[in-house]
Design brief:
Strand content: under 5%
Number of strands: 0
Radius of gyration: 18 Å
Distance between the termini: 23 Å
Number of domains: 1
Length: 191
């Protein structure tokens, strides 16, 4: 048990902050957790760490891949085979599918990727991720999709694919500042 906790702790959040700070040449870009907590969110120094933006972007992208795959797949399936459910139910189920797919992908990456956690530790780590970030991502994607396409998946339509790209971009950008803040201020990754 003790050995698994040692392996889990770095993978949870501290490793992501260490990675960002190790890539930095300047100590001012990666202050200690206490120093980062004293920086104001309105200061330019707080928002100016390129390594932390990079790590936040990677974390957000990993989540985006899972969320988007699950969301659009479920939306297409439900509209094709269960259209009688209604648009609001389909959108809600699609969001749940996106979050579930993201958790499954993150679990697999934590187990098979560089972290090499046990399956149990990978599941616990993935389940401990920030639900705020995932719900924000899903909500942004679905709001843009709903506004541009009425929530209808039309795989043969160029307009659908353009709207899908915009919704994916919104899904990436919406939680990115939150993920940056968690890394910068608390040394915690959301993904």
């Amino acid at each position: 048990m003790r050995g698994s906790l040692r392996r889990l702790r770095p993978a949870l959040f501290t490793g992501h902050r260490r990675l960002a700070c190790n890539e930095s040449k300047s100590k001012t870009e990666c202050p200690s957790k206490a120093a980062a907590a004293t920086l104001s969110l309105s200061s330019t120094q707080f928002w100016s760490s390129s390594p932390i933006w990079k790590r936040a972007g990677i974390n957000t992208l990993r989540c985006l891949i899972g969320c988007t795959a699950g969301d659009f797949s479920a939306m297409w399936y439900l509209q094709t085979f269960h259209a009688d459910l209604g648009l609001s139910t389909i959108m809600a189920l699609s969001m749940a599918s996106g979050i579930t797919t993201s958790l499954l992908l993150e679990t697999a990456l934590l187990r098979l990727g560089r972290d090499r956690l046990s399956w149990i530790a990978a599941v616990k780590t993935a389940a401990g991720m920030s639900i705020i970030s995932m719900v924000t991502m899903e909500a942004a994607e679905n709001a843009v999709d709903l506004h541009l396409t009425g929530g209808m998946v039309q795989l043969d339509s160029p307009a659908f694919w353009a709207a899908a790209l915009l919704s994916v971009a919104a899904g990436f950008l919406a939680p990115l500042p939150y993920n940056y803040v968690r890394l910068r201020k608390y040394g915690k990754a959301c993904h």
